[in-house]
């Protein structure tokens, strides 16, 4: 990849990140309650309170405070939870793994599922399967993730008892080794499928449209003329090009995926960042909620950056635009 | 003075909308929800807040959607939930339309400085998922967010996608012949924007606003599902929050409020879908193909949902 594009794209990130930092700083400033009151509990003379303000730098001018805040955040210091008294970064780290596991699994399922379904739909445009996929996209898009989760519990889990519906591991017997991993896997099935559901239909439609566009192009005719069979043409030629819009979209869908994760985690009592967010919001633990808003925004920016770079690497037209 | 092009286009579009299946279904679903929302207070058979019916009854003639664990009528709850959902959706749609069209046009017609400023602000707003902002605000307000604040928040954060669409449209309209003609006839910029640009931007703006409204309904119900919504009114999400503890015993508590959400959201999405087809005469129709493979196929128009959700309101 040429360095010019890389540099330009990285430079674009700076103002957005700065904007997000300013926005969250403003949100901290308008947070209800004086942090000093919380620290000093009841009473305390004015001089004592002023001393505390000076200790925490709350008497300095606002721009300077913004600088301190930005510096802290960039060093990974996200503040301290009011209710739990722990650093927010430690809390986040303890809940990060389940959420990462859930979202990456959902992302893999939806991407692979979309590749398969999109190809099937593109095989006969406006055929029965294509129409089914089209309707499924519309319906899945209208389903709230938490309701789909409830319906899945109601119809599949409770009827068959095949899959546990609550938590990350079996709380009753502590398993170790391979059994432990299998246990997590069984708990992962339903939440990740639910989370993948709304993505899969949409991505499948993008695959389908992309494939149909590519199949009409000259290089496909050339491939046919030299005698390649149809599956090979699709997998070796058309799909590669059709995948480009899919790559471009995955990044911008990270926000949806994380919003969906909050709801799905809540229904399945999945001990991840989503449940941490909801617990903290209910308990009015603002520093934790703010840190999670910041992290989610950062992930959206990062995901967009990464997908843009991948697109540029995969498609020369992007970087020379 | 040059008249704006083809007024009767709107009636022609309406007729075409009513001929497309998704248009009819979408309009039907949306009108049903709106009608229920408007009449809910008068027609709801019970007060959905009072515990005035026997608890945990199966759906029956007396209670078509059953009753909940405390003795509240689900049908009445669903009807008043429509009121809440439609109020929030309409409020946000209004603010979004206003901000998006104004900022989009301003960005298109003012200098680089303003254009860049609008684009940068839009970019930052789009990087912060609205759902998380709403949760933060709920945390600030003591773990619950009243719907008027929710409307303001979502209105203030939903415009960037619309503004981008409007900006692009406005730029292309500015280069068309009739705008040139108006300018040479001595029309002021304000006149051109009000008479020519805005009316021509409205069709695509309507599509974006419809889909935004559908996402807003999902957001509102998600927030109240988490128990962080407006405690003053009944919401579909609130009903589903209640249902969470009774999935094993009372399926009807979860099924009917969820269906109501699907009806409203699907209606708006279908309408947006149909409007895209109707308002854009350049998109190819469904081709009639012989059932033979290995043939050059004109790709069908990309799905409007695809475009909007890939980069649109979050």
Can you lay out the helices and strands and say which pair or pack?
The complex is a heterodimer of chains A (321) and B (314).
Chain A: H1 3-29, H2 35-40, H3 46-55, H4 62-74, H5 88-123, H6 128-142, H7 145-160, H8 177-215, H9 218-225, H10 230-252, H11 254-267, H12 273-282, H13 286-314, H14 316-319
Helix pairs in contact in A: 1-13, 5-6, 5-8, 5-11, 5-13, 6-8, 7-8, 7-11, 8-10, 8-11, 9-10, 10-13, 11-12, 12-13
Chain B: H1 9-19, H2 21-43, H3 74-109, H4 112-127, H5 130-140, H6 147-174, H7 177-184, H8 189-225, H9 236-243, H10 251-279, H11 304-311
Helix pairs in contact in B: 1-10, 2-3, 2-10, 3-4, 3-6, 3-8, 3-10, 4-6, 6-8, 7-8, 8-9, 8-10, 9-10
Which descriptors apply to this entry?
heterodimer, A: 321 residues, mainly alpha, 0% strand, globular, B: 314 residues, 11 helices, elongated
Please characterize this protein's 3D structure.
The complex is a heterodimer of chains A (321) and B (314). The longest helix of chain A is centred in the middle third of the chain and has 39 residues, at 177-215. Chain A is mainly α and 321 residues long. Chain A contains 14 helices and no strands. Chain B is mainly α. In chain B, helix 2 packs across helix 10 (251-279), helix 3 runs antiparallel to helix 4 and helix 7 (177-184) packs across helix 8. The two termini of chain B are 42 Å apart. The interface between A and B is large, with 69 and 62 residues.
């Amino acid at each position: 990849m040429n360095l010019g594009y890389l540099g330009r794209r990285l430079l674009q990130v700076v103002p957005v990140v700065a904007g997000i930092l300013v926005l969250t700083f403003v949100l901290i400033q308008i947070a209800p309650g004086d942090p000093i009151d919380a620290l000093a509990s009841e009473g305390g003379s004015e001089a004592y309170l002023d001393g505390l303000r000076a200790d925490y730098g709350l008497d300095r001018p606002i721009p300077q405070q913004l600088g301190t805040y930005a510096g802290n955040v960039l060093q990974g210091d996200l503040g301290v939870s009011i209710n739990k008294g722990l650093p927010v970064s430690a809390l986040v780290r303890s809940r990060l793994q389940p959420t990462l596991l859930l979202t990456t699994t959902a992302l893999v399922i939806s991407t692979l599922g979309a590749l398969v379904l999109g190809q099937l739909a593109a095989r006969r445009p406006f055929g029965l399967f294509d129409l089914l996929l089209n309707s499924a996209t519309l319906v899945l898009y209208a389903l709230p993730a938490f309701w789909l989760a409830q319906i899945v519990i109601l119809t599949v889990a409770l009827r068959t008892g095949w899959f546990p519906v609550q938590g990350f591991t079996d709380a009753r017997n502590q398993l170790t080794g391979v059994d432990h991993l299998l246990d997590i896997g069984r708990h992962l099935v339903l939440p990740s499928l639910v989370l993948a559901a709304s993505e899969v239909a949409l991505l499948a439609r993008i695959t389908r449209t992309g494939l149909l566009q590519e199949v009409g192009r000259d290089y496909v005719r050339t491939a046919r003329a030299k005698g390649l069979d149809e599956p090979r043409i699709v997998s070796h030629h058309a799909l590669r090009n059709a995948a480009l819009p899919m790559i471009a979209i995955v990044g911008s869908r990270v926000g949806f995926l994380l919003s969906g994760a909050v709801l799905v985690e809540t229904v399945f009592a999945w001990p991840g960042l989503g449940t941490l967010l909801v617990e903290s919001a209910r308990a009015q633990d603002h520093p934790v909620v703010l840190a999670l808003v910041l992290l989610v925004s950062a992930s959206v920016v990062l995901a967009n950056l990464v997908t843009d770079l991948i697109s540029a690497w995969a498609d020369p037209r992007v970087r020379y635009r | 003075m040059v008249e704006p092009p083809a007024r009767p286009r709107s009636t022609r579009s309406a007729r075409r909308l009513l001929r497309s299946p998704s248009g009819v279904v979408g309009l039907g679903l949306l009108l049903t929800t709106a009608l229920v929302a408007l009449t809910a207070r008068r027609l709801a058979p019970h007060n959905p807040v009072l515990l005035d019916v026997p608890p945990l009854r199966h759906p029956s003639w007396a209670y078509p959607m059953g009753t909940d664990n405390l003795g509240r009528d689900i049908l009445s709850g669903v009807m008043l939930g429509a009121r809440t959902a439609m109020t929030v959706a309409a409020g946000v749609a209004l603010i979004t339309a206003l901000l998006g069209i104004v900022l989009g046009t301003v960005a298109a017609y003012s200098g680089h400085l303003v254009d860049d400023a609008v684009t940068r602000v839009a970019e930052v707003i789009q990087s912060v998922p609205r759902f998380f902002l709403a949760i933060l605000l709920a945390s600030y307000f003591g773990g619950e967010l009243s719907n008027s604040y929710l409307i303001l928040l979502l209105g203030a954060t939903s415009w960037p996608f619309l503004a981008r669409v409007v900006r692009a449209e406005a730029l292309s309209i500015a280069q068309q012949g009739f705008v040139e003609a108006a300018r040479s006839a001595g029309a002021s910029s304000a006149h051109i924007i009000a008479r020519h640009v805005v009316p021509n931007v409205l069709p695509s703006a309507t599509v974006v606003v419809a889909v935004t409204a559908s996402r807003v309904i999902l957001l509102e119900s998600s927030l109240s599902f988490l128990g962080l919504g407006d405690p003053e009114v009944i919401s579909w999400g609130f009903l589903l929050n209640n249902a969470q503890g009774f999935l094993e015993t009372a399926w009807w508590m979860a099924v009917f409020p969820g269906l109501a959400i699907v009806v409203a959201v699907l209606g708006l999405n279908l309408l947006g879908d149909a409007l895209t087809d109707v308002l854009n005469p350049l998109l190819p129709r469904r081709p009639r193909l012989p059932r033979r493979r290995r043939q050059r196929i004109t790709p069908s128009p990309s799905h409007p949902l695809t475009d909007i959700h890939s980069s649109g309101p979050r």
